[in-house]
């Protein structure tokens, strides 16, 4: 190994020699501690950059105990309780919640901060008609039989969500030194003063630390546990734990109207990202983002004055620190680090503007749930790397690293060997590319949904890249784009309502009906529909996945059905006959060797007329369709889970929709869909990589020439075009052995 650096190694006490050896082997130039571990004394002797986790809003339990009213808060909803008889109804708000994590707050004006709602009518019940029996029971005096009721209650957060998860996962209850950490709210003036003074003192006491890794700042994403300590509700984008009485009062002063508990509870959906965002919630996001920016900026200033860098972990208490929000660059963060769970989450980190460098924390985390006799740490490392590499090639992370307990990882020497290889390949991507991103297609792809830029690379996620049956059909679009050679921009409906930006060559709208990602009510906007329809007719391109533009109105379910050439059967047009003929030979499906996998699929989709080219069908429903519309084109896909096959199909669909399919062969691509290539014009090199754990042979096409490579499991190859100019497309020019 000739180069070192760009790698951060987790370390812990009692492993000095192992740490030194691994730093040499992995070429690590930075070390860090993980949650629950301390930095060993050897850290200051390693001549490496030292990171240390820091928690502004938890970790000082002495302070937390001395200020019992300073807890952060949730807005939560009780179970839906039916009234089966006339008269009184008592609701236990804590039924189903974990009492060690949350506690109802009755030290507030409950008539303002609590709310009882008749979920049958949607009516808010007057506080004069209900009362508290005790801290966790509400009595409704005159319940109507057959109606269902809930209580929106204000709850103190008694145990930090992430520390609780780590505590339970790692059996920290067996360690008498461990405690259950209580979070505290930055909006309390005395607590804010304490946070500032505590950070100043901590910086003085830790001269060995070069980088303060804030994990993160003040408000945790919504993560609530049930009565037995298992996850009950998780929303990685949730703001329901950012509330306080003072914040709501301040919001009313700034925005001129008062929020209610229901504005946070949102019928029990808690404004999760699949919900089309209401104006009140968008205002709260903006309000919180501005406040958190202001406070985080002060902590970063303290960090810089102490001669240290400030790094933000994109996780835990990240709410309000929106990395694609309008105020984020004002904070002055030096770096952002985040967990890499997929190509999409990798791009979510690497594309963040306004920081000096980005870092990805790769999987697996060195925790006992993976590092045990039945675990597969090498398999997880390979899957993590193969997913991430596609994104790193397109938008490189500046650094990589791992987290957890090093003492666990070293018990698996084959795993350490694999990590050594991954670290070296990561560095080579930077060295060989000379720090320049590879060439993209000559047009930009716009992803259109209700959120736009603020949720860049964050669509269709629930809990940070975890798989869900209902979303993998659509998340595959984002996962594919993360590693394809396109500039990608995330646009809201407001961004295109009065005109599609000039640089956009293809618009993609993907999602299920009724969600923020498909659009729901947005498609009832005549101006929006008219603008996109005319844009496509004038030569634009539109790709719809699943139930795009879905909103039942004026005789259509898909409001852009005329553009797409297909419509969804909602049992209202069963009387209308449908005729289909599948076109088996088309540019879009040229690399589709087997039946198209559309995941859960749209279902019951039919072509409007013979002008729609149906390219794939299943059980009588259209899966893929291509349609000319005026001077433009549209493509319909019933779903697109991520796979090499589907990524290539989307690649081709984008070129066809943009009316550029004739240029595809001369734009860099591999004929083997399980391999991909990136072209670096300034370095005059190409990087060919195998996205599987099996050996692959591939022919690389570009500039009218061809190269042949044989790539071993997860292998890759750099080809210098100055030294190996390739041959005419009909030739065969092997350039590598199995690697």
Name some characteristics of this structure.
Rossmann fold, Immunoglobulin-like, globular, 17 helices, disordered C terminus, 739 residues, TIM Barrel, alpha/beta, 8-stranded parallel barrel, Class_I_gatase-like, 7-stranded mixed beta sheet
- Uncertain ranges: 731-739
Record field, number of beta strands? 37
Strand order of the largest sheet: 1-2-3-13-16-17-18-19
Largest sheet: 8 strands, parallel, barrel
Computed over alpha carbons, the radius of gyration is: 27 Å
What structural class do helix, strand and pairing data support?
alpha/beta
Total of DSSP H or I helical runs spanning 4+ residues: 17
How many discrete structural domains? 3
How would you sum up the global shape? globular
Average residue pLDDT: 94
Strand content: 15-25%
User: What is the annotated CATH architecture of the largest domain?
Assistant: Alpha-Beta Barrel
Helical fraction: 25-40%
The first-to-last residue Cα distance is 16 Å
Query: What oligomeric assembly is this protein in?
Result: single chain
Domain Lacto-N-biose phosphorylase-like N-terminal TIM barrel: 5-438
GO molecular function, one term: 1,4-alpha-oligoglucan phosphorylase activity
Pfam family, one: Lact_bio_phlase
Domain Lacto-N-biose phosphorylase central: 445-661
Walk me through the structure:
GO terms for molecular function: 1,4-alpha-oligoglucan phosphorylase activity. It comes from Boudabousia tangfeifanii. Pfam families: Lact_bio_phlase (PF09508), LBP_C (PF17386), LBP_M (PF17385). This protein is of the alpha/beta class and 739 residues long. It folds into 3 domains: 7-56 and 188-220 and 276-433, Glycosidases (TIM Barrel), CATH 3.20.20.80; 444-663, 3-Layer(aba) Sandwich (Rossmann fold), CATH 3.40.50; 669-728, Sandwich (Immunoglobulin-like). Helices cover 25% and strands 25% of the residues. It contains 17 helices and 37 strands. It has an 8-stranded parallel beta barrel. It has a 7-stranded mixed beta sheet with strand order 21-20-22-23-30-29-28. Strands 4, 5, 7, 8, 9 and 12 form a 6-stranded antiparallel beta sheet that branches. The longest helix is centred in the middle third of the chain and has 27 residues, at 279-305. The chain is globular, with a radius of gyration of 27 Å. Mean pLDDT is 94; it is low at 731-739.
């Amino acid at each position: 190994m000739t180069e070192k650096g760009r790698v951060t190694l987790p370390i812990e006490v009692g492993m000095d020699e192992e740490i030194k050896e691994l730093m040499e082997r992995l070429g690590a130039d930075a070390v860090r501690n993980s949650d629950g571990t301390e930095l060993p004394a050897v850290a200051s002797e390693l001549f490496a950059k030292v990171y240390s986790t820091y928690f502004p809003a938890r970790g000082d339990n002495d302070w937390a105990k001395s200020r019992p009213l300073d807890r952060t808060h949730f807005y939560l909803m009780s179970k839906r309780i039916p009234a089966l008889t006339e008269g009184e109804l008592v609701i236990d708000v804590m039924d189903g919640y974990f009492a060690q994590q949350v506690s109802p707050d009755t030290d507030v004006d409950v008539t303002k901060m609590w709310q009882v709602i008749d979920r049958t009518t949607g009516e808010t019940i007057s506080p004069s008609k209900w009362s508290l029996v005790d801290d966790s029971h509400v009595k409704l005096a005159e319940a109507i039989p057959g109606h269902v009721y809930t209580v929106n209650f204000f709850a103190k957060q008694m145990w930090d969500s992430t520390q609780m998860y780590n505590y339970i996962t790692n059996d920290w209850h067996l360690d008498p030194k461990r405690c259950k950490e209580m979070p505290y709210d930055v909006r309390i003036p005395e607590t804010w003063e304490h946070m500032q003074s505590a950070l100043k003192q901590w910086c003085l006491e830790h001269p060995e630390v070069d980088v303060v890794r804030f994990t993160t700042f003040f408000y945790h994403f919504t993560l609530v546990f049930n009565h037995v300590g298992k996850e009950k509700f998780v929303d990685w984008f949730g703001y329901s734990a950012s509330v306080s009485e003072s914040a709501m009062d301040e919001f009313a002063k700034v925005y001129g109207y008062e929020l209610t508990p229901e504005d946070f509870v949102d019928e029990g959906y808690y404004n999760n990202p699949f919900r089309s965002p209401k104006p009140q919630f968008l205002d709260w996001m903006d309000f919180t983002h501005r406040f958190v920016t202001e406070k985080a900026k002060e902590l970063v200033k303290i960090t810089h004055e102490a001669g240290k860098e400030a790094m933000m972990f994109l996780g835990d208490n990240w709410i309000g620190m929106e990395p694609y929000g309008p105020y984020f660059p004002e904070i002055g963060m030096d770096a952002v680090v985040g967990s890499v769970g997929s190509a999409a989450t990798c791009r979510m980190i690497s594309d963040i503007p306004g920081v000096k460098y980005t870092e990805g924390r790769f999987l697996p985390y060195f925790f006992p749930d993976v590092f045990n006799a039945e675990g597969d740490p090498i398999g997880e490392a390979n899957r993590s790397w193969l997913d991430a590499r596609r994104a790193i090639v397109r938008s490189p992370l500046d650094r990589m690293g791992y987290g957890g307990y090093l003492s666990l990882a070293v018990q698996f020497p084959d795993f350490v060997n694999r990590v050594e290889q991954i670290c070296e390949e990561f560095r080579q991507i930077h060295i060989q590319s000379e720090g320049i991103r590879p060439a993209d297609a000559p047009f930009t792809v716009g992803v259109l949904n209700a959120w736009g830029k603020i949720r860049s690379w964050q669509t269709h996620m629930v809990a940070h890249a975890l798989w869900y049956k209902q979303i993998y059909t659509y998340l595959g679009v984002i996962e594919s784009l993360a590693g394809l050679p396109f500039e990608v921009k995330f646009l809201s409906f407001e961004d295109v309502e009065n005109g599609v930006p000039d640089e956009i060559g293809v618009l993609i709208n993907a999602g299920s009906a009724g969600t923020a990602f498909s659009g729901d009510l947005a498609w009832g906007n005549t101006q929006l529909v008219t603008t996109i329809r005319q844009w496509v007719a004038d030569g634009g391109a539109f790709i719809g996945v699943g139930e795009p533009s879905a909103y039942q109105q004026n005789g259509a379910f898909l409001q852009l059905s005329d553009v797409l050439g297909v419509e969804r059967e909602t049992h209202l047009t069963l009387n209308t006959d449908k005729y289909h003929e599948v076109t088996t030979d088309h540019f879009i499906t040229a690399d589709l060797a087997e039946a198209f996998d559309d995941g859960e699929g749209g279902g019951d989709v039919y072509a409007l007329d013979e002008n729609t080219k149906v390219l794939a069908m299943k059980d009588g429903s259209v899966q893929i369709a291509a349609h000319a519309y005026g001077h433009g084109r549209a493509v319909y896909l019933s779903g697109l889970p991520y796979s090499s096959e589907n990524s290539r199909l989307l690649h081709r669909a984008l070129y066809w929709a943009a009316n550029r399919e004739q240029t595809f062969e001369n734009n860099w691509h591999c004929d083997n869909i399980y391999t991909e290539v990136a072209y670096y014009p300034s370095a005059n090199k190409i990087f060919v990589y195998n996205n599987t754990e099996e050996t692959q042979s591939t022919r690389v096409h570009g500039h009218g020439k061809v190269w042949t490579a044989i790539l071993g499991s997860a292998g890759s190859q750099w080809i210098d075009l100055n030294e190996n100019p390739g041959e005419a497309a009909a030739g065969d020019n092997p350039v590598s052995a199995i690697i």
